[in-house]
Amino acid sequence: MHEALCAVDSTKTETKTNINSLLQTVNLLYSYHLNYNFHVWQIEVCIAAVDGGHPTPLSSTVTVTLNIVDVNDSPPRFTQSSYTFGTYENQPRDTEIGRLVAVDADSPPHDRFIYSVVAEKPPIGAFVIGRRSGQLATARELDRELTRVHHILVAATDVASPQLSSTVNVTVFVADRNDNAPVVSFPRPGNDSVEVSNYVMTLI
Ligand SMILES: [Ca+2]
Ligand SMILES: [Ca+2]
Ligand SMILES: [Ca+2]
Q1: pLDDT tens, the chain, 204 aa long
Q2: Separation of 38 CA from ligand 1 center, angstroms?
Q3: Measured in Å, how far apart are the chain's first and last C-alpha atoms?
Q4: How far, in Å, is the centroid of ligand 1 from the Cα of 18?
Q5: What's the CA gap between 105 and 103, in Å, rounded?
Q6: pTM for this entry
Q7: Which listed site, 70, 124, 128, 180, has its alpha carbon 20 to 30 Å from 195?
């Protein structure tokens, strides 16, 4: 009985094995090395069949080309671990705060994703983000005297299925405006005394 032999040359190292081992080798490559995102888009496997004839064995070869098709296995990832922005209070709604950027290692259409505001602290609906642009803007006027620092959780989520996502923390500091007139707290109508430095003088 003649045993069919074959040769595999995927890493420039020729390996002789039988057909069952070949299948195992291909499965091994598939399991551990075929990652589209690492730009391994195609591999070629050279297969040789050699008979056991004497005195000269006869053989033939064939090249099998494996094309690697991308799947959505990479979530969009933000380019920064966190974002910090600043803005003034009393700005009209839709005032731009800053821009968040995420990237997706998959190929089209698996690299498409959208941005969204997941949570705010305090939860007053003060911010919106462009679904495609990542532009963060105010959804209402901010009041520094009520909240000086806002904490926002923003997500970037795949459009394709499965919807992989990642999140990032955003901090927004609200700068002061001179929007509070001084109030005379003492004396007031009805009071009969005035505080001067550390002394209290009684009016007659
Ligand atoms: Ca993706
Ligand atoms: Ca992929
Ligand atoms: Ca204010």
Answers
A1: 334 444 444 444 444 545 555 555 555 555 555 666 666 677 777 777 888 888 888 888 888 888 888 899 999 999 999 999 999 999 999 999 999 999 999 999 999 999 999 999 999 999 999 999 999 999 999 999 999 999 999 999 999 899 999 999 999 999 999 999 998 887 777 766 655 555 555 555
A2: 14
A3: 129
A4: 38
A5: 7
A6: 0.69
A7: 180
